[in-house]
Amino acid sequence: MGSFSYKDLKVWQNSMEAEHVYLLTQSFPRQETYGLTNQLQKAAISIPSNIAEGHTRDSTKEFLHFLSIALGSLAELKTQLLLAQKFKYLSMDNSKLLLLKTEETARMLRGLQKTLKAKLNSP
């Protein structure tokens, strides 16, 4: 998709902060290793991965499809963070910080989708 890399996209850079999820899940109970911990980590990794994959596809339509998947993973991540907070695995401060980051990323993804849709619909 053009001459620049997916690494140049601010939304990709923003979503690469998945490492915060990894750091915070280290303190989760051991019994959650294959449960909520794993789910959170997979969702966090899926977001920048789908942005990158979509960006390298052949068409704007395909890129939009992968951005949609990234948004789905973001919704999963947000739900899982809320569950972790509810189960008292995350402090309110850490949860709030990550949830704000998910909102920021969602806004950026929707903005990119809007731009790409406008590009698709222009003559």
UniProtKB/TrEMBL annotation:
Pfam families associated with the record: 23S_rRNA_IVP (PF05635)
UniProt name for this protein: Four helix bundle protein
Annotated organism of origin: Chroogloeocystis siderophila 5.2 s.c.1
